[in-house]
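Case study 2.
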Amino acid sequence: MTDLEQQVFSQVRAIIANEEQVIGRRGILMPLKKAIIADGDIRNVIDIVASDPALAAHLLWRSTSASNPAVQSSKTRSLKDALIRLGQVNIYRYAFTFYLKERLDELPQPYKKLVQGYWKLTENIAVDAVDSLHNMPDLDVDPDEVQTLALFSVFGQVITLTAFAFLNAEAEQSFPLSVIKSIIDNQQEQLSLEAFESLGLDEELKEEFLIAHNLRQTTRSASAGLILRRVLSARGLLLNPL
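Prediction:
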């Protein structure tokens, strides 16, 4: 790593560690996380989600987006039905990605275009992973768990590029994109794990991410990470290639 890359690497890591700067909208996420951790009345979670109509609409959509069309019996009729169906862990993961995407849409160019490319990639990976699961009906794996995990497939790259955009916005002289490209290419694993830890995501998500990228092994056949691993391998995206 060159001196310039080391300088940028250190500053990007410092920004990643600043949860509020990276994700932005903490007004909903923080109380939502507390309500989920408390494992209390689902009505508390419903009230928090309902306070942001855009988030509520997104979760209503997500509540059926991973369902198998061949066995889907009925559409979700209420926010309460949707949230109960998703489960609290998936609610938070979907909410996190919703506000992260909102944050990404606020980035200046050319970072916005680059990060949106990553985001489109994650959505495509999610579709492939859920389709793969539906083709394995004997596996007892929650499709929303597979979908939420897939949305974090290239999490390290997304967060690193976002942090780099914030860094350049405050710098007297902009750093070239080639610097952050080199850092992403060579430090993906470390940056991904630091992003998971700094942004307070659940430990199970990080564990399955490691399994998905062939960085950790498991004997559980019913692992969302193993399902995603096949998709990431086919796309040449594994941090640790097979």
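The mean pLDDT is 90.
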